[in-house]
Structure formats: structure tokens, C-alpha cells
Amino acid sequence: MNTFTATQERMRALDARITARPDRFRVLTGERPTGRLHLGHYFGTISERVTLQARGVETFLVLADYQAITDRDTADNVSINVHEAVLDYLAAGLDPASTTIFTHSSVPALNQLLLPFLSLVSEAELHRNPTVKAELAASGRALSGLMLTYPVHQAADILFCKGNLVPVGKDNLPHVELTRTIARRFNDRYDDVFPEPESLVTASPEVPGVDGRKMSKSYGNAIALGMTADETAAVIRRAQTDSDRHITFDPVGRPGIAALLTTAALCAGTTPELIAEQIGSRGAAELKRVATDTINDYFAAHRRRRAELARDRSAVMDVLQAGVERANAVAETTLDEVRSAMGMHYTLT
């Protein structure tokens, strides 16, 4: 049995267990608030979180603001990005009554897990992590200590709340595997405190940006969830296409055309090939019109809810405050267990 087939079978079995007993699972997921959330976030992670919430799975959602300072360029506007992200979460249907939304920097006990966790991993293991390797290749300079230990930060994020289910794409499986290793080593060395979390490998589509590359804030090719219909239209008008009027789906030969077809198809619930066939020889202008209308129609309700929420800034702050209080209570309990397990629980008798 090949790896792909084995993963599919494991995911089917895991899905059945979630359906049967959603109360046995706790999810940890989140983002680094380095910019506005975009369509890639929505189709890649946010919609999956809404689905898990509807299935009755408790979710902790971290806005990892401390981890934003690992960005090699800038960590400007973190507080604005956090506020904007919460608006998008709420507009998408995440309910703070069942999804705990909090900021990393506001939970001190979570970060105290880093020291014992760092003692359980080697430098070589950290260097093998794909995110660390990619950052080193992209930056062309020595890694900061924060970036090198990024995988352990993620382990602390997951384990502080005893998360036992982590939705990931297949490229992020090494992060969960290192978290499992840390949990196992801690339990073996001290006492059974942490679960070994399972990866929920999602089949989330990769949403291309308007230039055909992966949609990314850093590439400047993204359609942000907070954009208006007119702003979305403007981004799509600037998309690079080609002079061939007959529209075909060819991601390699026609990346700009393929990107618009893919995004339109996601929003329309169909295939890029079918949209290309429907447009035929009416050219890139018609494709851009179709893509604009389809995206704007799909996100119209999201944008209405978002605009309503944005009128009351206190609504976002109330959600964050409640989430931070909940996360702190959970983190303090876990840290207390860790101290006891390590023989570092000092009380006067």
C-alpha cells in the first residue's frame, strides 16, 4: 500500500471517529497575523474550521502574534491584522461560544512550555523542519533563534490546550510529527501529561493568486476577504493573461488564465475546465468578468456580515478578551500539571 492510499484510509477512519464522538477531540489551529486573510485562507483553512465546529469539535484558534516577528521583512500592523482576522473569522461563521479565539502573546503560561520542550529536541531536528529550511533558503542569512525554534513554538501552541487533532496540509505533517515526539518524550521522561496529537490531513485546494503562483500576502497576488466588490474587480482587471482569445485550462502554459478559472470554479462549485468551455472564444475580458462576478457573489454574505461587525469595534475586543481568558485558564492548568510532573511545584505546607 502506497503512502497516499494509507493516508486516505487513515483519514476515513479518523473522520468516522470524529463523527461518532466529536467530544473526544480538541483542535488547535491558527495563523500568524502578518497581513490580511485572503481567499487561500478561506478555502484552505477557515471553511474547514467552520465544518469542524458544526460537527461539535471544540476548537482553539491562535493568532500567533509572537510568531509574526519571525517574518524576515516586517511585523508591522500586527494589532490591525489581528482585528481584521477576527472580523473574517466571525463573518465566516466561527462562533466564539465554541471556538476559543486568542492571541499568542496574551497567554504567558503557553510560552513557559517552551523551556521544557526545547530540552526535548536537538538542533538537528529543528534544522530538518521544512518551514525552517524554507526560511533559511529564502532569507539567505543566519536564522534567528526564534525562527529556528518555530516548530517548538507550534508544539507549545498545540499541547498547552492538550489539542489532539491538528488540521494540516500534507506539507505540514512534519510539524505535527515533531509535536508528537515532544509529547511522547515529555511523558516518558516525567509523567503522562500530553496527548500525542493526530494530523487531520485536509483535502483543501491550493488557491492560486491572480498571477498563477500560490496566493500569498508576500507575493502581492491575493484577493483579501476584506476587499469590497470594487476592490476585487480592480485586482482581477490587473491580472496578467495572454492574447489567445480561446480560453483553456492550462496551469503550466497559461498560469494567469488558469488561476482565474480555478478561483472562479471554487466559488461556483464546478470545474475550471467547464468554465473554460463555457467562455470559449470570448477572451480574457469575459473570463475576468465571470471570475469577478462569481467571487463577488460567493462572498457577498461574508462581506455584509463583516461590515456589520466592523461597525462595533468592541465586538471584536469582546471576543478576544473572552478567548484570552479561556486560553489562560487552560494554559495555567496545563502548566501546573507540567510543574508537578517535573518536580517543580513549590507550595508552603
- Can you tell me the CATH class of the largest domain? Alpha Beta
CATH topology of the largest domain: Rossmann fold
Order of helices and strands: HEHEHHEHHHHHHEHEHHHHHH
Q: Give the helix level as a range of percent.
A: 55-70%
Any idea what the CATH architecture of the largest domain is?
Answer: 3-Layer(aba) Sandwich
Characterize the main sheet: 3 strands, parallel
Our count of helices gives 17
Q: How much of the polypeptide forms β-strand, as a percent range? A: 5-15%
The order of strands across the largest sheet is 1-2-3
Gyration radius over CA? 22 Å
Number of strands: 5
Average pLDDT: 91
By CATH's scheme, which homologous superfamily of the largest domain applies?
A: HUPs
Overall spatial form: globular
Number of domains: 2
Distance between the termini: 59 Å
Give unreliable regions as ranges.
Answer: none
Structural class: mainly alpha
Short description:
This protein is mainly alpha-helical and 349 residues long.
Write the layout of secondary structure elements.
Layout: H1 3-20, E1 26-31, H2 39-54, E2 58-63, H3 65-68, H4 78-92, E3 99-103, H5 108-112, H6 114-118, H7 123-127, H8 130-139, H9 145-148, H10 150-160, E4 165-168, H11 173-189, E5 198-201, H12 229-237, H13 255-268, H14 272-279, H15 283-298, H16 300-310, H17 313-341
Parallel strand pairs: 1-2, 2-3, 4-5
Helix pairs in contact: 4-16, 10-11, 12-15, 13-14, 13-15
